Amino acid sequence: MWSSTFEQEFSRLPGATSDEIASFVKTWNGQLTEQEMQEIRDSQRNPFPQTSPFYSQYKPLEPSTWLFPQRDFPQSYLNFLSFANGGEFQNGERYFQFFGTVDLREMNRGFIQRVVFRAGRTIAQLGCIHNPAIQEVVS
Q: CB under 8 Å to 24, separation ≥6 — which residues?
């Protein structure tokens, strides 16, 4: 499948077991734990310089009100996880990384931290340090 879809494979994790998928479906979008909320609180910093008029107005976000989307994944995505439980691939200059059962909750938590949302879910991202165009910008 990968060789007919992607020009280059960086990694492909083995497929998730049915038990891993069942656990993932039950837990990926559960309420944030106390530990997760504390990690989010501890990671927040005032983005404004002290000389900015906005510095004193900054208020950290309170994660206790954040919710993961309560939507089901399509069966086709769950079937896909049984084939590959995460991976990184490239077509031309496009880099594709998809998250497996272990990483998806953490990646969505990071996304929620940046944009509090209620309707979507992140299952993959485009662009990464492996992308030569991005490497040039980062270097």
A: 16, 81, 101, 104
CA atoms of 112 and 31, how far apart (whole Å): 12
Specify whether the CB–CB gap between 95 and 127 falls below 8 A: yes
Q: Quick one: CATH architecture of 2-31+67-138?
A: 3-Layer(aba) Sandwich (3.40)
State the DSSP string of 72-101. PPPHHHHHHHHHEEEEEEEETTEEEEE--T
- Highest mean pLDDT, choosing among 33-37, 112-116, 130-134: 33-37
Domain boundaries, the chain: 2-31+67-138
Place of tokens 């983005």: 47
How many Å apart are CA 89 and CA 80, to the nearest integer?
15
Q: What is the distance between the alpha carbons of residues 77 and 101, in angstroms, rounded to a whole number?
A: 11
pLDDT digits (tens, 9 = 90+) for 1-21: 666 777 888 888 899 999 999
Calculate the alpha carbon distances from 130 to 53, 102, 122 in Å.
Answer: 39, 21, 20
